Amino acid sequence: MELQRTLEVLRRRPGMLGIDGSFGQTAAFLEGVNAGQQGGLLQGFREWLVVQVGDGANLTWRALVLRLANGESVGGGLEGLSADDERRITTVLFDQLDQFLAVRESTDGLLKIYDNYLKWLRRQDWYTPNSQSYLD
User: Which of 44, 114, 135, 72 is nearest to 127 (CA)?
Assistant: First the structure.
């Protein structure tokens, strides 16, 4: 199944792919597809999300989606979320993924994503030439 079609089925009819549509299972499915593509599906997604959130360079893409959906109150992650919360978070995930893929697939899209991330990094007071992964 073509990737775009798979993502659409995942969003609209997750049961066809054997998952319940929860954020956890959706994220796990995406990680599997990403692994199958040797990291190609989600390359740059975490950096995209860091810029969108304006924070969280130390977080995974999953945690960044939770932060976008719930604000600062990430707390215990997925523990105790209602079905409505799960749907809302999953919607945020797909909305961000759609926006990200549209930018990434544009001319020089991945380069622009990493450039925006680097510009964001350079605006952080904690990011200095003494930082372990500092980029000139």
Answer: 135
The Cβ of residue 129 has, within 10 Å, a number of other Cβ atoms equal to 7
**DSSP per residue, 40-80:** TTTTTHHHHHHHHHT--TTS-HHHHHHHHHHTT--TTTTTT
Residue 133: closest CA among 119, 120, 121, 115: 121
Residue 20: count other Cβ atoms within 10 Å of its Cβ: 11
Whether the pLDDT of residue 115 is over 80: the answer is: yes
73, 80 contact by CB (below 8 A): no
Dihedral through CA 39, CA 121, CA 56, CA 34, nearest 10?
-10
Q: pLDDT tens digits for 37-55?
A: 998 999 999 999 999 999 9
On whether the CB atoms of residues 92 and 65 are closer than 8 A, the answer is yes
